UniProtKB/TrEMBL annotation:
InterPro entries given in the database record: Ribosomal_bL33, Ribosomal_bL33_CS, Ribosomal_bL33_sf, Ribosomal_zn-bd
HAMAP family according to UniProt: Ribosomal_bL33
Segments forming a coiled coil: none
Protein name: Large ribosomal subunit protein bL33
Keywords recorded for this protein, A-Z: Ribonucleoprotein, Ribosomal protein
Pfam families given in the database record: Ribosomal_L33
Organism: Halalkalibacter alkalisediminis
SUPFAM superfamilies assigned: Zn-binding ribosomal proteins
Sequence similarity: Belongs to the bacterial ribosomal protein bL33 family.
PANTHER family attached to this UniProt entry: 50S RIBOSOMAL PROTEIN L33, CHLOROPLASTIC, LARGE RIBOSOMAL SUBUNIT PROTEIN BL33C
UniProt keyword Protein transport present: no
């Protein structure tokens, strides 16, 4: 079953991206390196609660 998750920037904490993940395959939180519009650079984005 796929669920919607929101990704937030680690530096400025702005919630920039939303994506989906399969909870059966990945139970831990997702981490991706994405472009943050507020920081104007590529930063680590983590899944929020």
């Amino acid at each position: 079953m796929r669920t919607n998750v929101v990704l937030a920037c680690e530096i400025c904490r702005s919630r920039n991206y939303s994506t989906q993940k399969n909870k059966q395959n990945t139970s831990e939180r997702i981490e991706m390196k994405k472009f943050c519009k507020a920081c104007q650079e590529h930063t680590l984005h983590r899944e929020t609660k």
